[in-house]
Amino acid sequence: MDIYLIKLIIAHLIGDFFLQPNAWVKDKERKKLKSTKLYLHVAVHVALIFLVFLSFDVWKIALTIGLIHLCIDALKSIFQTNKNARILFFIDQILHFASIVAVWHLFYKGSLDISFLNDAHTWILVSGALFLSMPTSIIMKVIIAKWIPDNQPDSPKSLENAGKYIGILERILIFLFILTNHFEAVGFLLAAKSIFRFGDLKEKHDLKLTEYVLIGTLLSFGIAIVTAMLIQKFIA
């Protein structure tokens, strides 16, 4: 990757995630375009570009990115509500990174190598990762549906859909571990989950719930391992 693009990304990461206190974020959300913290935040980004390049010759790049950053953050502050705050955060970051790449291309004539998108191996990897997300969750739900234990009135409530997302994350991690030939990390992940999960089950003394969790965990790990090994064969 081009060194100039890397420096611009580093400046953005430092400005948005290290040098932007929560108080500034709240002030921008509350006062919107009247927030002085909005303009101070943009000034920090401009200053960081000068700093990472150690030169004032990049003033056109710094001011261009600063102006675009101001527009993106201003629009976000105007349209953000409690309901759409999470999705706007990701849209905001996507627009920032896209603008950085666009400015880098404009000033440095840089280009990103996207030839991997035409590589069959890339799409095989993507298909494997997608299969281990929602499709596997649904398959597992169908398989173990008849063993779902009855809810107990004194059972602690868990986060909504937490189990589903934990399963997806663990399968994706296993997928990555095996494809990078780190099988030992799979064992570490299983051990870590066992410590957190089965400690609670032991206290409940509920054999059916324990067996249900064991079946779900082993099934999830098994599907992830088999899928990763098959993908590994296809791309070898």
From TrEMBL:
Entry keyword set: Membrane, Transmembrane, Transmembrane helix
One Pfam family linked to the record: DUF3307
Keyword Oxidoreductase: no
Membrane-traversing stretches: 38-55, 61-79, 86-108, 120-144, 165-192, 212-231
Protein's UniProt keywords contain Membrane: yes
Name of the protein in its database record: DUF3307 domain-containing protein
Gene source species: Pedobacter miscanthi
